[in-house]
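Annex B. Sample input.
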Amino acid sequence: MSARPCFRCREPSVFHQRYSGRHLCASHLAADILVRVKRTIRLQGGLGKKPVMAIVWEGQACFSLLSLMSQVIGDRPSMEIVLLHCGIDSIPGSEMSDFLSPAISIRSERVKPDEIVLAATQAGADRLLWCRTLDDEAEEVLHSLLSGNCSSLLTKEDCSPLVNLTPFREIPLSELFLYAAHAGLLSPDMEAREGTESTRGFLESLIHNHPSVPFSLLAYADQLHDLR
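Annex B, continued. Sample output.
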């Protein structure tokens, strides 16, 4: 059976966005993701004024994040990205620059988890970016609800000099996976975050019949944040 036409250009679609009802081709899926990434960054405080941003290496999703951030940053001059790596595997090397525009430089630092904020500020950054997807955010909310620990969803007093950005907050992992595939990037890891494996299974069963559940969970968490 042939693919349904794209909602925007009538080319064959590669993805059915069930929560919106739209079918999208690869190009318009990428454009839709970029629009939502830009909106999330804007709502969370923007790119800031400093020419340095720090990104926490959280697996292969970082390749997609670098690709999209290059488009978000655009022609902004003399930008540097510092990649903070907490794992025991090898630090990504110069190949990371392949996903960036020539105006953006990148370097990597190995840090301990409790040194991330310090390392970012010492590098001169005022923005700290994470690769958390819609799935990760929804899992965290659902896990808090199921465990009866709703207080963990309330915004805590933050004295950090950094603004935390989660550009993929509204992007389902399945869409990010397709974006990476069509952009020729390494695909993001599909595993659930530690401690939430059973929660992800439950969440996926809910999404099967109610595709907008992750967005509803985020909206619920945002309302709790506003109560603070």
